[in-house]
Structures are given as C-alpha cells and as structure tokens.
Amino acid sequence: MLAVNKMSGQLDFEDPKIITIVRVAYVTSCLIVFLAYSYAKKVIESKNDLTTFTMEKPASPFSQTPPESVTTTVKAYDLEQVSSALKSLYQGVAMMGFLHLYMKYTNPLVLQSIMPLKNLYENKIIQIHVLGRSGPEYKRPFKTESLFGGSKDEAAAAPSPAVDASKAKTD
Predict the structure, then answer these.
(1) 92 near 116, Cβ under 8 Å?
(2) pLDDT digits (tens, 9 = 90+) for 12-44
(3) Which of 17, 46, 49, 57 pairs with 98 at a CA distance of 20 to 30 A?
C-alpha cells in the first residue's frame, strides 16, 4: 500500500486524462467487488446450509449488558457477513464521492482502487464460497481481528494483570 501511495504522488492530477483513468479504475474496482459479493450471496443461497451453531453476540461497546448467546444457521451467518461487507463497500463509495466530488481530492482514489480488492481477497466468505477454501480457520463464527493485531477473541480471553495490593504505593 505504501508503494501505491508513493506512486500516486507521482501522478499529475491536473491532467484530465489521468483523472479519468483513476476514476475508471476506482469504479471498476468497486464493480468487481460488488459483483463478487453478489455472486457469493447467490452461492450461499444455493447451498442452503442450515447447519446450526451457537455464538456470542457482542454487546455494544459502552453497554454494561453481557454478550448474549445466539443460535443461527451457517446460511444466515454467511448472508449477514455478505450484507456487512456490502454496507462497508457502500460507505466507502459514499466517502470517496464526498472527498472527490465535493472536496475535489483525487489522490485517495488511487489507494481506494486497490483497497476494496485487497479486502475482497481477504474476506473469509469469498475465500469459502468463491475460492473454495476450507479448513479450521474458516470455522464459523469467524475470529475478528483487533486494530492492534491478534484477534479480539484472544484479547478478551487473556487474563487481566493482577494488582498486588501489598506492593501498591499509597500517598
């Protein structure tokens, strides 16, 4: 991604041809991602996997309520994941529309032409239903990555450091 960012700095965004090429690349990238998720949705619906599993639905971040246990099917879970990915795509398009059309920023279009394709390839639903991958890392529910590496599930399961009251200083 750094190489793409560096390359975008070399482009002449005053040239209308360059702007048109970058716009076409962005729109093409978004269309490929949309079509891939639409295809994955059709595959999920045709498989109709009604195998059930139980997962913990996380509570909202600032809520004091504990996570609740939910039973769902593989089909419903996968369709929910596709819906979430499509919402993410739509939000990205809206943000880029605002930045490019209203704020007149063209530089982010270059990076955003690559990012949706990278995210598409890394999406487990696409890996399972389009690329045909399987294995223990594709077991539902999928582990969610935290912002700082590792999975959120591992971070939640890690014991919190104990504070030794005898070593704590009192003022």
Answers:
(1) yes
(2) 878 899 999 999 999 999 999 999 999 999 999
(3) 17
Name residue 145's beta-bridge partners. Answer: 151
| Helix runs in the chain, H state only | 2-10, 16-47, 74-97, 107-122, 124-129, 152-157
Query: pTM of the entire structure?
Result: 0.79
pLDDT of residue 169: 46
CA count, 13 A, side-chain hemisphere, 125: 27
- Please report the pLDDT score of residue 146 as a whole number: 64
Report residue 34 as tokens: 């949309």
* Encoded tokens for 52: 């059930």
Q: Tell me if the bond preceding 141 is cis, omega within 30° of 0.
A: yes
C-alpha distances in Å from residue 70, one per residue of 52, 56, 137, 142: 10, 6, 21, 14
Torsions phi, psi of 85, nearest 5? -65, -40
